[in-house]
Amino acid sequence: MAHWLMKSEPEEFSIDDLAARGREPWTGVRNYQARNFMRDDMRVGDGVFFYHSNCAVPGIVGIARVASAAYPDPTQFDPQSDYFDPKSTPAAPRWQMVDVAFERKLPRTISLDELRRHAEALGDFPLLARGNRLSVLPVSDAQWKTILALA
DNA sequence: GCCAACGTTGGC
DNA sequence: GCCAACGTTGGC
């Protein structure tokens, strides 16, 4: 079973929003590397760290699960959507996504700052890499355990 | 709001 | 196929 970290801006969609909805299509990923992780490597049941980005205290706030195989993100075909991609067509969709299901909220936020303080234990963790901007990234078994133990 | 990092676009 | 310009991400 693989593990992942997925970023969301809490003003757009927070862990509380996911808790309220139960399950949510992960729309709006427009980065090929992130898409490829969802399309090629994610499996139903994989664990996901839900990360709040672009906010007062960025960090991991909860646990979710991959709840579907990848399928085309409908927002790419919708001219009204912020995520509309005029170069994409239903016959040849560019962007894929998965559904994500709420599992639990962590008792407290494991902040980016705290994660940095455990950089050594976390080893090669892409979230902590300089200039990292990926919104979907892999988490190793060891990293998953290390981070869960912090909560 | 600033700006560093970095991905994408498009002219050549 | 190079690379400058531009847009976006996301921490601060």
Describe the structure in your own words:
This protein is α+β, with helices and mostly antiparallel strands. It has one domain (3-125, 136-146): ph1033 like domains (ph1033 like fold). Helix content is 25%, strand content 29%. The protein contains 5 helices and 8 strands; from the N terminus they run E-H-E-H-E-E-E-E-E-H-H-E-H. It has helices at 15-21, 32-41, 112-117, 119-122, 141-150, and strands spanning 3-8, 23-25, 47-52, 59-66, 71-72, 96-97, 99-111, 136-139. The strands form 2 sheets. A 6-stranded mixed beta sheet has the order 2-7-4-3-1-8. The protein is globular and about 45 Å long. It starts with a strand and ends with a helix. The mean pLDDT is 95. The structure holds a DNA duplex (12 and 12 nucleotides).
CATH topology: ph1033 like fold
Number of strands: 8
The secondary-structure element order is EHEHEEEEEHHEH
Average pLDDT value? Answer: 95
Total count of helical runs of at least 4 residues: 5
User: What is the CATH domain class?
Assistant: Alpha Beta
| Anisotropy-based shape | globular
- Give the number of domains: 1
Give, in spatial order, the strands making up the sheet with the most strands.
Answer: 2-7-4-3-1-8
- Measured between the Cα atoms of the first and last residue, the distance is 21 Å
Beta-strand percentage range: 25-35%
Proportion of residues in helical segments: 10-25%
Question: Layout of SSEs?
Answer:
Blueprint: E1 3-8, H1 15-21, E2 23-25, H2 32-41, E3 47-52, E4 59-66, E5 71-72, E6 96-97, E7 99-111, H3 112-117, H4 119-122, E8 136-139, H5 141-150
Parallel strand pairs: 1-3
Antiparallel strand pairs: 1-8, 2-7, 3-4, 4-7, 5-6
The protein binds a DNA duplex (12 and 12 nucleotides) through residues 7, 9, 30-33, 53-55, 58, 112, 130-135.
